[in-house]
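Feature request, filed as a ticket because there's no other form

It would be nice if the structure record came with a short human-readable summary line next to the tokens. Right now we just get the raw output. Example of a typical job, pasted below so the devs can see what we mean:
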Amino acid sequence: MVRLRQLALQATELERATAATIRCRLLKIGAAVPRNTRRVRVMLASHHPLREPFAPTAARLAALGL
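Raw output as currently delivered:
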């Protein structure tokens, strides 16, 4: 969680959050994950309260290859 915070949560509302807060608010969210031979998609609810920090965090992790 510390490494996730260092790599991907900078400049978000979770940049100073504890490990338990990150786990509960960002990682333990309900999502549909359809997959095929080329890609895996994560489909979140349109009204998820933390959708704003989730998208840039996922993009940063993808850019790092994680």
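Something like this underneath would help us a lot:
The mean pLDDT is 82.
The beta strands are 31-32, 43-44.
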